[in-house]
Amino acid sequence: MMFLTEKEKKRELKTNIENYMKLLFRKSVEEANSQQLFQAVAYAVKDIVVDDWMATHKEYEKQDVKTVYYLSMEFLMGRALGNTIINLKQDKLISEVLGEMGVKLDTLEDEEPDAALGNGGLGRLAACFLDSLSTLGYPAYGCGIRYKYGMFKQKIENGFQIEAPDDWLKEGNPFEMKRPEYAVEVRFGGYVAVRKDEKTGRDKFVQENYQSVMAVPYDLPVVGYGNHIVNTLRIWDAEAMDTFNLDSFDKGDYQKAVEQQNLARTICEVLYPNDNHMAGKELRLKQQYFFVSASVQRAIRKYMENHDDIHGLPDKVCFQLNDTHPTVTVPELMRILLDEYDLEWEDAWNIVTKTCAYTNHTIMSEALEKWPLELFSRLLPRIYQITEEINRRFQDKIQQQYPGNFEKVKNMAIIFDGQVKMAHLAIAAGFSVNGVARLHTEILKNQELKDFYEMMPEKFNNKTNGITQRRFLLHGNPKLAHWVTDKIGDEWITDLSKIEKLSLYIDDKKAQQEFMNIKFQNKVRLANYIKEHNGVEVDPHSIFDVQVKRLHEYKRQLLNILHVMHLYNELKKNPQMDMYPRTFIFGAKASAGYRRAKAIIKLINNVADVVNNDALIQGKIKVVFIENYRVSNAEMIFAAADVSEQISTASKEASGTGNMKFMLNGAPTLGTMDGANVEIVEEVGEDNAFIFGLSSQEVIDFEHNNQYNPKEIYNMDSDIRAVLTQLIDGTYSREDLELFRELYNSLLESNGYERADQYFILKDFRSYEAAQKRVEEAYKDEQRWAKMAMLQTAKCGKFSSDRTIEEYAQEIWHLKKVNL
Fold first, then answer.
1. How would you write 431-492 as a 3-class SS string?
2. 370 touches 421 (CB < 8 A)
3. Which residues, in sequence order, are bridge partners of residue 41?
4. Which residues pair with 223 in a beta bridge?
5. 111: which DSSP letter?
6. Residue 694 and residue 580: Cα distance in Å, rounded?
């Protein structure tokens, strides 16, 4: 192997960039615009990656390794260029080469759109896991969908969320590789005919009169940190089987001529189509089956290229179902084994139950997917037949274990009351069922999935979520990352437990000053971003109190903004009130069909308009809603945050990973004892977090005994009553007094399907207010706050996705590490 000197590497990279500029755009570097430069540099960087990518897969084949297929509807990868360069450990070299060409790497990174392949924590977790799998040297594929527009690009117009198409592929994606040689057919609809196999005399089940699309994979490299391992994110695009039916066109049936094209195009158009109508539900189920069927078909073909016995599949393949979305993996794998490999049912089931594992990401029963029987059976007729037989056999098993206990059958059946229950199917078939934080797993075992746990306790285990420090500290907060490395060395980059060595510096006044100075510089950077994008001046000396995450009622952005309204009322009554200036920063997308969540966004923006423009309060409160929250601006926000708002109703948040990203960047948690907050508090101690509110058990007890009445709080507490009245008296909605009526009613009135204040916002309000006062007192004591902030970073070692993946690999997947 020929080793190049630093000078030779630079010359080669520069030549490659110049060559790509000519090849792609017929321009010199000097003539190119920033987007063209980004493309040329990205292709040159991909050249460096491809050799390792090929070598990795050759080594996997040579060693005949077991591979995990991580099946997920979302992969929130963020921008690829900067992260890839860091993981290649080429950031210094590439920055220097670009500098010599008069180009800044930061400028080029800003030209790359965030890949619109995910939305919230589920997708970001999947991305962190892929990074960790490569960095640890474990063989893996991420499998998902190549969405053309993702969820949507969020615009805020007159305070309202407006959904615009996020055309992230408009300029092409330089990091992807189309792999048409691995395309497979995926079938929908029609009916199942039974034919006798003349050789065996067995019934053969054949899907007929179906529609189908061709699933075509696009591969993206996932580069491990400094180890030359490159795994693959495989995202599937849909193409028509016949792009144009000339016969139909000639007969005048123009619609039929392009119907295959239309089917293919809609499948990959958007992430999570609005499912409050049947067409949206149907499209979502099509998406799920599309990427699952394609991934499973290809995985089996790949396995059979090097093996002659399908029975050995569990020794070489594991399908990890990231939440309930990919649960059709179970009947799809059964279909292939039964119909294409002619296995007997017991034989096929034995393989499936050793190959599929399920991660549960939610405690909330409404988020455990259930499909209407009519839709499921019509769209996936053979899959439905198999699911029906799985259900029949599973019910027999329940009745054997609990004779005469029909309540158990009702609670655990896979098909019941006109619905197919996907979580039940995943648990019945999976050899492992894991929660994603210790509290979450305990609630699953003792509440939501209690019947399943009692029947098969051996399946249940916990894998507390993690985040990758390479994305959220090394790349997202370079100033702090360099400081940490300067203090303790760079081992933390691949072993975050080593960051605990920072504890030695927590009482060092000089180190405290340096740490808080970095935080201040990051706050200035975010303040400039806010000024540019929101037109609002915020003071970097104020407390940056941040809540950024998906907008859902259980995450309680409403509690946060109601408290801001209360603070504003207090200041209006007493403008001279001694209050440390506060900047409340929100960022969130609400699902397009989630009316109430969108009303909360409008409320936050209306409150911001009033508060930010009131000279009487002397800038003591500012409110900012950051538009189009995504990975690239999240990195900047985490680095600048003083306070991490993790205020979900206790027992509702499975884990949270935003809480870990804030912790890594030195922001103490203001939160409930929910999800992974519990474990964060264990690491830093209760004195270094601001905990408030009901416990998870108290919430569960209130829900069970139905004794909570928010109207009592409303009647007894004049401050809360004043805040709620402002929702409907025009204080924040002069143009429409009814604008926030639904939010007001949701807090005080029950209706046919939900309790009043079902997320206990009024119940926790005063406790939250007291915690906010403790934040202010702590922040005023500069030395105490510096220690507290440093401690967050020093104690976050447990929350690396490397640790999580090591646990999955050893305890669930049984993978072997590969070295190059």
1. CCEEECCHHHHHHHHHHHCHHHHHHCHHHEEECCCCECHHHHHHHCCHHHHHHHHHHHCCHH
2. yes
3. none
4. 230
5. T
6. 27
SS (H, E, C) 701-753: HHHHHCCCCHHHHHHHCHHHHHHHHHCCCCCCCCCCCCCCHHHHHHHHCCCCC
User: Nearest 5°: CA angle at 428, between 289 and 408?
Assistant: 125
- Residues 6 or more apart whose CB falls under 8 angstroms from that of 450 comprise none
Which residues does the annotation mark as catalytic?
361, 549-550, 555, 657, 661
d(CA 331, CA 651): 32
CB count within 10 Å of CB 356 equals 26
202 or 214, which is more confident: 214
**pLDDT given at position 243:** 57
What contacts 258, CB < 8 A, 6 or more positions away?
244, 245
Angle, in degrees to the nearest 10, between helices 34-63 and 6-25: 110
Helix or strand holding residue 524 (H, E): helix 509-534
What's the whole-model pTM score?
Answer: 0.96
Q: Which amino acid is at 56?
A: T
Contact status, residue 584 vs residue 612, Cβ threshold 8 Å: no
pLDDT in tens, 76-118: 999 999 999 999 999 999 999 999 999 999 999 999 999 999 9
d(CA 593, CA 284): 14
* DSSP code for 341: S
Q: Strand 191-196 and strand 230-240: pairing?
A: unpaired
User: What end-to-end distance do the CA atoms of the chain give, in Å?
Assistant: 14
**Confidence band for 751, pLDDT divided at 50, 70 and 90:** confident
Q: Which helix (H) or strand (E) holds 234?
A: strand 230-240
Relative to beta strand 140-145, strand 230-240 is parallel
At 252, the pLDDT band (50, 70, 90 cuts) reads low
- Residues 634-686 have pLDDT tens digits of 999 999 999 999 999 999 999 999 999 999 999 999 999 999 999 999 999 99
Is the predicted pLDDT of residue 1 greater than 50, yes or no? no
